[in-house]
Amino acid sequence: MKNNIFKIAFAVWVVLWAWFLVRELFVKDNIDTYRALLQRSLEGKRSYVTGDKLYEFLMFCKGKMPDHSSYKIVGLEDGSIEKRRAVYYLYPHLESNEPAYILDTQKYILKKNDGA
Description:
It is a single chain. By secondary structure, the chain is α/β, with parallel strands linked by helices. Helices cover 57% and strands 13% of the residues.
């Protein structure tokens, strides 16, 4: 009797696990996203999640700015996930109100701030 209860509970668990897996991939139509992420490297996954063009621009800016320089991002809404990711990827450079560089994410331009 006790053995049958464990078998039934295990069977129910397997069915629920399979249902949630199928639901996530096919019903919510996430199969293409997962396929794209499986085929990419770690750098490619970061690029895919952030947006390929924005990530490439951020890595370009990080490489061109001197160590520990300050910057200001123009074109991303404050508090948005894109802005938070940009700040994360640009570390150890720090965002500032009086920046040495201005990053324009709409035109993808990095320019030195002459007023700083």
